[in-house]
Amino acid sequence: xxxxxxxxxxxxxxxxxxxxxxxxxxxxxxxxxxxxxxxxxxxxxxxxxxxxxxxxxxxxxxxxxxxxxxxxxxxxxxxxxxxxxxxxxxxxxxxxxxxxxxx
Amino acid sequence: xxxxxxxxxxxxxxxxxxxxxxxxxxxxxxxxxxxxxxxxxxxxxxxxxxxxxxxxxxxxxxxxxxxxxxxxxxxxxxxxxxxxxxxxxxxxxxxxxxxxxxxxxxxxxxxxxxxxxxxxxxxxxxxxxxxxxxxxxxxxxxxxxxxxxxxxxxxxxxxxxxxxxxxxxxxxxxxxxxxxxxxxxxxxxxxxxxxxxxxxxxxxxxxxxxxxxxxxxxxxxxxxxxxxxx
Lengths: 103, 230
What we know:
The structure holds 2 protein chains of 2 kinds.
Chain A: H1 2-22, H2 26-49, H3 59-89
Helix pairs in contact in A: 1-2, 2-3
Chain B: H1 2-20, H2 26-47, H3 54-76, H4 80-100, H5 104-129, H6 137-140, H7 145-164, H8 185-194, H9 197-218
Helix pairs in contact in B: 1-2, 1-7, 2-3, 3-4, 4-5
């Protein structure tokens, strides 16, 4: 079953990546990073439950708890930045900030 | 056999995702639906014959299908509020998968923190920043959907085909002790506060820094159309 969990986790991560690349709404792009976190959580816990050798461990679950804390901090900071950017330009379009990119 | 099913699954899923991206024509949605049903059938055919308890395989397939389809709908929906709601469905499916791996405390924490706290913040910001009158023009059209989908397809193909061709029997269940209950709150708490106590302290510092940073950002005054900050 380990491979099945890894498949689902990888698929969730990839969907998040594709969404991050293709969507143009700042909030949706942040949501896609959270989707990538979900894929990583599934992978970590599956590796803890079905280890390649030895007995199951709790390390994957503990790492996932740390990941939850970091995700909460990232959401607070990221959404504060999104609100600030929205107040500058009045739009959530990420192309409104394309001057930040090197051209 | 597993490799063939994986390639079918990835191809159907990739084409379906490309057709479902916002900006396509209307009849593309129907074709995307058919392709995604095919991808779901390939996933069922891949997971169901695996070794392991039958109940776990059935629940796994169900939750994986719900999670993946909700994730796909989340990144293709044109309205941000619906994207956030579909993400809650993804979180519920993920929690179910965690319960299947006996990580019950983590499943509850995921539901409470993500669906309860983080998603409420997202929905609040969406309501704060969304223009009235339906979805905005930048939500109607995806940016370079073909390149994005091909990138994701290649990444996932490299990851999972390596998995299917691994040594031994990667799609078989490795023998574990079923009597041992992992993930109860006592075990996780003991593990967390003995072996990873430094990490707990550092996490506290990270949360404090994020709180101070969020307050500092929110206190800035922005005037529309200008790059100046007071």
